[in-house]
Design a protein that fits this description.
heterodimer; A: about 475 residues; eight-stranded mixed sheet; 16 helices; B: Archease, Possible Chaperone, Chain: A, domain 1; five-stranded antiparallel sheet; three-stranded antiparallel sheet; 8 strands; about 25% helix
């Protein structure tokens, strides 16, 4: 553990002053209580390491769900000047465009309470999940290239969902700049069988209900009502993204040497944004971003089928509709105000969510005056939140906020604590029905393994970088 | 030597995000062997892998550390794409930057093998191979 002097900025913001090799100070969003935990972990050192990279702007930022990852911390945000800064695969992570889609229904909790087991059972059967899961789709390399370029649009064109869904996805589900020629054969091989799969670990599909509304006006604009059934999908680009990250870490290790970039940790390897290596990584990363958008669009379609079958209802009765979809492992070219000037930057969000404030042209017309909906999944026992982006986020965090609860216990500790208990039964006693391909996954993902998402959300709301809209409580979950 | 059971081959360390292990080896060569064993022991129960097929695996890197990550990544790739699992490794050639080995094992079969965990990637985080008085060791973080 390293002891850096930390200065309090306000109740929810702490600064590690610039020292030694740091180009900018580090800033951690957290309550005092959470900060103590964060400091016990190695995460603080990772914030300092990122601050040493060339061209980093303003601060190396950490959200309150920060926890020890590798290279960049999970819960980290770092923006680099496009002309003098770098792009780093480690700043995005292996699961490129891991993200969350929130769907709302026209159903009330009382309409489905006695059918929840059947719904979960159907979801589990319709959506391939678990380690090594292969999809029901068979696609060729040519089709995979189309997926890379078109993202969720590819899925819609192939019968999964509607054109209208695309408006409510970050980047409209089709990020520009994909370059399939910079994607390796290995990534094709790993990715092809995995389109339309959920994966394992913390990925899930959860049936929830709106338990509390904090901002009635925004909630009504999002079409929310108390007791409403919603569904969250949390997954990413699967083995396709993992392989692209893995390939480009190697490219960047050599590139960092070539461009004389000093690395405090190899996993931070990077190249100038405008270098050939930087551009190639960006083109490959966007390909994986679009794969993940396509994946969630397909899974979303199966969610609708499973619901209709389980409830014996028509689409008109279920009224399943996308609220919004966010990415929380991504690098993007954005323009932000830095010291009073507009600067084009490459914003890395690794376990952090874009949270643009009202009026931003990147937001869909229907939400533009409100700000961006932000989806924060919690652990499977407690709650999830819908937040909205603020102007302060634009000023302080390059329009970013937290992404989830953040792990508290290692998987090893979680399994030790689950010994002799049935986590599945404990959750069922609380009215939450779970199906998973592996019991170990349920144990590792038990609620106590995570920080309380409400504390995480209170910290970002306290700091002003997001506003609370609604809280969602789980009724049933499928896990890998 | 690769299947010697007595000295500890690896141990799992605390890590809040992913899996972190410490690998031990009597020699540098043995460290690479034990790292391979640890990888498959995370994926499945490595002791239960039978010797039914052999595969030549080659890896290279700018230094020992890159080499060990690339070696493990090659092995993991063989599991991820061809479902091959191994528990014996004969290292035919080892330099600071290159390795050539024969990996011995079988195809993963869900009826005989328990799938414990899939490894997304082997990371370079905080990686250093160290020579101690009587052995070699290194810590590796796997993204899972």
């Amino acid at each position: 553990m390293n002891d850096y002097k930390i200065k309090k900025v306000n109740d929810f913001l702490w600064e590690i002053p610039r020292q030694n090799q740091m180009n900018v100070p580090g800033r951690i969003y957290a309550s005092e209580k959470m900060l103590l935990k964060i400091r016990e972990d190695n995460a603080e050192q990772q914030v300092v390491n990122v601050a040493q990279l060339p061209g980093i702007l303003q601060y190396s930022l950490a959200m309150p769900d920060i926890h020890w990852g590798y290279g960049f911390p999970i819960g980290g945000v770092a923006a680099f000047d496009v002309d003098s800064g770098v792009i780093s695969p480690g700043g995005v992570g292996y699961d490129i465009n891991c993200g969350v889609r929130l769907l709302k229904t026209g159903l009330h909790k009382r309409d489905i309470e006695d059918k929840i087991k059947n719904i979960i059972y159907r979801l589990f059967n319709y959506i391939p999940s678990g380690v090594g899961s292969k999809g029901k789709l068979k696609i060729s390399n040519e089709q995979l290239k189309q997926v890379m370029k078109k993202g969720a649009r590819w899925s819609v064109e192939n019968g999964y969902g509607n054109e209208a869904d695309l408006d409510k996805i970050e980047e409209n589900g089709e990020m520009a700049g994909a370059e399939p020629e910079f994607v390796s054969d290995r990534a094709f091989k790993r990715g092809r069988p995995q389109l339309g799969t959920l994966g394992s670990g913390n990925h899930f599909v959860e049936v929830q209900y709106i338990d509390q509304i904090f901002d009635a006006n925004i909630a009504s604009r999002l079409g929310f009502f108390e007791g409403q059934i919603t569904i969250s999908i949390h997954t990413g680009s699967r083995g396709f993204g993992h392989q692209i990250c893995d390939d480009y870490i190697r490219v960047m290790l050599n590139a960092a040497q070539k461009y004389g970039i000093q690395l405090p940790d190899r996993q931070l390897c990077c190249a100038p944004v405008n270098s050939p290596e930087g551009k190639q990584y960006f083109g490959a990363m966007v390909s994986a971003v679009n794969f993940a958008f396509a994946n969630r669009q397909i899974i979303s379609f199966w969610v609708q089928e499973a619901l209709m079958r389980a409830l014996q209802m028509s689409p008109r009765d279920v009224q399943l509709e996308i609220v919004y979809e966010v990415a929380h492992n991504i690098a993007k070219m954005e323009t932000h105000q830095v010291n009073g000037k507009k600067v084009k930057c490459c914003v890395h969000r690794k376990g952090a969510t874009r949270a643009f404030g009202p009026g931003n042209p990147a937001l869909p017309q229907c939400y533009r005056d409100l700000g961006q909906p932000v989806l924060i999944p919690g652990d499977m026992g407690r709650a999830s939140y819908v937040l909205i982006g603020t102007e302060q986020a634009m000023e302080q965090t390059f329009g970013s906020t937290c992404h989830g609860a953040g792990r508290l216990l290692s998987r090893k500790k979680a399994i030790q604590q689950a010994k002799g208990r049935s986590i599945k039964q404990e959750l069922e006693d609380q009215g939450i029905f779970i199906m998973a391909t592996s019991m170990a996954t349920i144990n590792e993902e038990m609620p106590e393994a995570y920080k309380n998402v409400s504390d995480v959300v209170d910290a970002v709301v306290g700091a002003g970088i997001s506003k609370k809209v609604a809280r969602l409580k789980p009724l049933g979950v499928i896990k890998g | 030597m690769s299947s010697a059971a007595s000295p500890k081959r690896y141990e799992q360390l605390e890590h809040s995000g992913d899996i972190r292990i410490k690998v031990f080896g009597e020699s540098l060569k043995n460290l690479y062997v034990n790292a391979g064993y640890a990888l498959f022991d995370i994926i499945t129960d490595a002791e239960k892998i039978k010797s039914e097929l052999a595969e030549t695996v080659e890896a290279s890197g700018n230094d020992r550390e890159e080499l060990i990550v690339n070696w493990l990544s090659e092995l993991n790739y063989l599991y991820l794409t061809e479902r091959k699992i191994f528990n014996k490794f004969e290292i035919d050639r080892l330099t600071e930057t290159e390795l050539s080995a024969t990996a011995i094992g079988e195809k993963f079969n869900p009826r005989h093998h328990k799938l414990k965990k899939e490894i997304k990637a082997v990371t370079f985080h905080d990686l250093e191979i160290q020579q101690r008085a009587k052995h070699w060791e290194t810590k590796i973080v796997f993204d899972i």
